[in-house]
Amino acid sequence: MYSENTFQGSQNYVASQELMGAVNIAIALQKPLLIKGEPGTGKTMLAEAISQALNKKLVIWNIKSTTKAQDGLYVYDVVQRLYDSQFGNQGVDDIAKYVKLGKLGEAFSSEEQVILLIDEIDKADLEFPNDLLWELDKMEFYIPETKQTIKAKHRPIVIITSNAEKELPDAFLRRCIFHYIAFPSQELMEEIVNVHFPNLDIEMLKQVMEAFYWIRGLSSIQKKPSTSEVLDWIQALQLGGISQQKIKSEIPFAGVLLKKNEDLDTLEKYKR
Q: What totals of helices (H) and strands (E) does the chain contain, helices first?
């Protein structure tokens, strides 16, 4: 149905049929895949899993509030060039020496197709996604300092993640394949846990799942625990040698699951 670049999950990542379908459609249509979901649902790990499954290098561009689109293309170190010229260093006329490619430029210049992860795009300002439209459409950009056009040798597989902290521009959304990763059902969560803890006692798994989903179901919890936190919790329970009978009744090491004082107070209130 698809090309040889077909994603079917990986050894360390449990993906739903819908998610695998979205990944493969995005690859086939050569469009960026925009993944949204609450923190801790495995959005970043998806790119790692695709990289592992398809045996392709992963290039990660971590977006911050101060990140500009230009940062992903290239950086011209004019300060270093000025410094070198003042001290008579050779080669200052070679501007290319002072141009360093960003993560997008690195992906475009790769001799083989890579996976490009643009992680947490919603952290940047509102204009950031629109500033990337040309580059993601045409897979090229121009460096005026060197009068050089960088064209993608192999179109990267682009995965973009968002925690939905802010809305993304419509023009940007139209160019993406969109998939929302819903929080895993208990059945799917058990599969995920078994991947990470294949020898976990069945009764312990049952107690952990019941306690975890009970906490998530409390309406007054402000920051609900995520997949990564339940995995950390299981490890803490094992290291602490906690009795299975105490897991649901006492919720040991609750601070691994809940990260706000108000949520810990809420938990104590409901435990009484």
A: 14, 9
> Is the Cβ–Cβ distance between 134 and 141 less than 8 Å?
yes
Residue 142, beta-bridge partner list: 149
Q: What is the pLDDT of residue 260?
A: 94
Q: How confident is the model over 23-59, as pLDDT tens digits?
A: 999 999 999 999 998 887 889 999 999 999 999 999 9
254 pLDDT more than 70: yes
d(CA 187, CA 69) in angstroms, rounded, equals 40
- The domain defined by 17-180 folds into Rossmann fold (3.40.50)
What are the residue ranges spanned by the domains of the chain?
Answer: 17-180, 186-271
Q: How much is the average pLDDT of 71-87?
A: 82
Token pair belonging to 181: 């990763």
pLDDT > 80? residue 130: yes
Q: For residues 158 and 110, is the Cβ–Cβ distance under 8 A?
A: no
Largest CA distance in the chain: 75
84 pLDDT more than 80:
no
CA distances from 268 to 87, 213, 225, 233, 245 (A): 66, 16, 16, 17, 18
Are 106 and 148 in contact by the 8 Å Cβ rule? The answer is no
For residues 216 and 222, what is the distance between their CA atoms, to the nearest angstrom?
10
Cite the DSSP H helix spans in the chain.
17-29, 43-54, 69-73, 78-86, 103-109, 128-131, 133-138, 170-173, 186-196, 202-216, 227-240, 244-250, 254-257, 261-271
Predicted confidence at residue 95, as pLDDT, reads: 78
